UniProtKB/TrEMBL annotation:
Residues 183-281 form the Acyl-CoA oxidase/dehydrogenase middle domain. Gene3D superfamilies: 2.40.110.20, 6.10.250.600, Butyryl-CoA Dehydrogenase, subunit A, domain 3. InterPro entries: Acyl-CoA_dehydrogenase-like, Acyl-CoA_DH_CS, Acyl-CoA_Oxase/DH_mid-dom, AcylCo_DH-like_C, AcylCo_DH/oxidase_C, AcylCoA_DH/oxidase_NM_dom_sf, AidB_N. Belongs to the acyl-CoA dehydrogenase family. This is DNA alkylation response protein. It comes from the Bacteria. Keywords: FAD, Flavoprotein, Oxidoreductase. Its cofactor is FAD. Residues 15-168 form the Adaptive response protein AidB N-terminal domain. The keyword Flavoprotein applies.
Amino acid sequence: MESKNHQSDTHVVFNQPKPLENYNAFTADRILQYWVAQFGGQWGEDRLTSFGGRIGGDLLEAGMNANQFLPTFRPVDRFGYRIDQVDYHPSYHQLMAHAIEHGHCSMPWCEKNSGRHVVRAAMAFLHTHADPGSGCPLTMTFASVPALQAQADIAEKWLPKIVSGRYDGRNIPWYEKEGVTLGMAMTEKQGGSDVRANTTYATPCEAPGGGKRYSLVGHKWFCSAPMSDAFLVLAQTDHGLSCFLVPRWREDGSKNPIHIQRLKDKLGNQSNASSEIEFRDAQGWLLGEPGKGIKTIIQMVALTRYDCMIGSSALMAQATKEAIWHTAGREVFGKPLHHQPLMQNVLADLALESEAALAISMRLARALEKLDNPHEAALVRVGTAIGKYWICKRAVQHTYEAMECLGGVGYVNDNVASRLYREAPVNAIWEGSGNVQCLDLLRVLTREPDTVSVFIAELRYATGANDAFDRAVYGLEEQLGSAETLAYRARQVIEKMAILWQAATLLRYGEPDIAEAFVQARVETSEYHQYGTLPSHIDMTTIISRAMPQSSG
Ligand SMILES: Cc1cc2nc3c(=O)[nH]c(=O)nc-3n(C[C@H](O)[C@H](O)[C@H](O)COP(=O)(O)OP(=O)(O)OC[C@H]3O[C@@H](n4cnc5c(N)ncnc54)[C@H](O)[C@@H]3O)c2cc1C
C-alpha cells in the first residue's frame, strides 16, 4: 500500500493504488474470455492475447495521448491551396494501424471460421479500452462492407482495400493506397434522425443509375473521421433519397471538393475528429437503386448500432475494472475499500450490469454469423434496437458510478475514469438516439409479428430455470399485447425487453451464479434505480472476484 517512490518533502504518499497498466487486457479479463469461448471464438484466443497485450501496454498510453493532443484542422496549405487536412497525433495512427492489421474492420468478411464476429467483437471491445474515439472510423469501415455490396462494380474496386488489413493515414488518393477507411455522412442541420429532410442534391454527370457518377452539392452537419478515404453519403435525386460513395480524391488525382468547414468541439470522443462539411460539386457514385438510399445505407447503420453496443459494453467493463482495481488498492477505516459492504454492493452491481451488456452483445455477434437462419436474422433485427437503446443508456450512469468509486482522482482528466464518463453519452446519441431505437422497435412490434415471436422464443428458451424470470416473460407478452398506447410506453417496453433478454442470455449461456444474481437484482427487484442496491443475500464477493483484472503484468 505504501509507495516509497512517491515521497515528497512534506509528507509520505501512501494508500494510493498502482495504476491499472502494463497488463494484458484480454487475459486479465475473465468475463470477456468466458463469452468469447461461449460463442465459438476459442480459435481466436491467441490473436486476442496478442491484441490484449498491446491494448493493456503501449496502446493504453497511445490512447491517453490521442485524447490529449487533439486533431487539428488545416483548411489550406502555407501557399493558400485548399487541402482540408486534419492532423492527428502519431498515437492515433498507431491505434488505427494496430486495430486494422489485426482484423478489426475485416475479420468477419475474410474469415470462414464460426465465431468470426465474436472474435472481432472482442477486438472492438478491447480496442475501446485504449481509445474509443478511433473506434468510430474503425466501425464505419467495418460496417460499410454490406452497404457497398449493393453495387457490385464499385464493391469490386473498394472491398479489397477495405479488408486488406493495411492502414494508410496519408492524405493521398485511395487508389494509391493498399488499405482504406470509410466514413458516413447522413446528418444535416435541419434533421439527423429524419434523414428524409436532407437537402444535399446529387445530379447525374451522364446517364443516371446504380454505379454511375453524380455531382453532389450541399452540406453535412456531422461527418466524423473526415480523413476517411471515402464516405457513404445520403443525397436527394430526382428519384428521392439515394446513397452515394464519395471519395476524398477524384480519379484524375485532384481533390474532390468536400470542404471541411470546422471540427466540432465535443464533450468526449476527442481523439476522433468530427467535422462539418460542404460538397461543392463533389463527385460520388450511386450505390444500389436511385431513391433507395435508406435501404442501402441501413445495413451500414445497423452494424454501427451493433458496434455501439460493443463500445458501450466495453466502457462499462473498463469502468468496472478501474473501480474494482482502485478500491482493492485503497484502505478506508482500516479495511480495503473493496471489502466494505456498501462498496461491495456498488462494485458487484456494476460488474453484473457490464457482464449482462457484454452477454447480449456477444449473443448478437453470434447471430450475425447465421443470417440465413430466420431465428438469428430476426434476433439481429430486433436485438440491435433493444441492445443499442439499453446498453448505451446504461453506460452513462454506470461510468459515473464507477468514477465515484475512485473518489476525487476519478474526476480528474489524467485518470481514464473521467474519460469513460465523458465518452459514454455519444453512443446513445449517434447512430439513432434513444427514442429512434424505440421507434424502430415499434416498427417491429406493429409490422413484423414474426420477428416479435422470435424474440419471445429466444426468451422462452431460457424458461424453466427460474420462476421469477418465467413469470416476467409471460408478463411481457401481455404488455406487448395492448397496442394502442405503445407509442407512449415504448421506453418502458424496450427496457423490459432488454432486461429479460439479458437475463435469458445469462440463464442460457452464462455462469449460473451470475445469472441467478442478475435475475434477483433486475427482474425480481425493480424498485431501486441507483447502483449499489443489490439484495443483501447475493454473493457479492464472487461477482467482484470474477470481474477483478487478473494480473498487473
Ligand atoms: C460526436 C458525434 C459524431 C457524429 N458523427 C456523425 C457522422 O459521422 N455522420 C453522420 O451522419 N452523423 C453523425 N453524427 C450525427 C448523429 O448521428 C445525429 O446527431 C443523430 O442522429 C441525431 O440527429 P440530430 O442531431 O439531428 O437530432 P434530432 O434528429 O433533432 O433528434 C433530437 C432528439 O429527438 C429525438 N427524436 C427524433 N425523432 C423523434 C420522434 N419521432 N419521436 C420522439 N423523439 C424523437 C431523438 O431521439 C433525439 O433525442 C454525429 C453526432 C455526434 C454527437
